[in-house]
Amino acid sequence: MPAPSFDELFGACQHSAVHLEMRDAYTPEDPVFQDWQAGKRIDIRESWGEWFDLVAATTARGVRVRRARIVSEPVTDFVRYEHELTEGLNLAAGEEVRWLPRRRASDLLLPGNDFWVFDNARVRFGYFAGDGRYLDDEMVDDSRVVQGCAASFDAVWERAVPHEDYRLT
User: Fold this and answer.
1) What is the pLDDT of residue 1?
2) Strands, E, within 52-160: which ranges?
3) What angle do CA 106, 28, 40 make, to 5 degrees?
4) Which of 76, 70, 123 minimizes the C-alpha distance to 97?
5) SS percent in the chain: helix, strand, coil, step 5
6) What pTM did the predictor assign?
7) What residue ranges of the chain have pLDDT lower than 70?
């Protein structure tokens, strides 16, 4: 089934939202990323204000929002961009963020796509092209899929390095 908007998903969320990212690059045509690559200073509130406000409002209601990123090392430019923005965007909005080097994830059983799990009840899969372009998304509420994704996230979270301790290579 098609996914509701993030406004709807976070608005309905009562306890937890977790996100697992497993790609080394996303949205190569994103003008904010392109500005960052060109050495321009990024104003997080201008570029990411709606997302920041949504997550900040969600965490202010007591919902725990966590994001884990599995990354190849040495990291790509896109991962450097994400890492640089994480403190002022994700952490400042109330998210918790951890990083897991891909070589430390080899023995984990992971779904084939990035996902969000909301309140351990629904999964939103994100589908991307090989170059990182966003293609589509899908909502799944099958309890076996939800629990599998939640268990995968927990395994990554347990092993991953908190943002403040993760050093890029």
Assistant:
1) 62
2) 64-71, 96-101, 114-118, 122-128, 134-140
3) 115
4) 70
5) 40, 25, 35
6) 0.96
7) 1
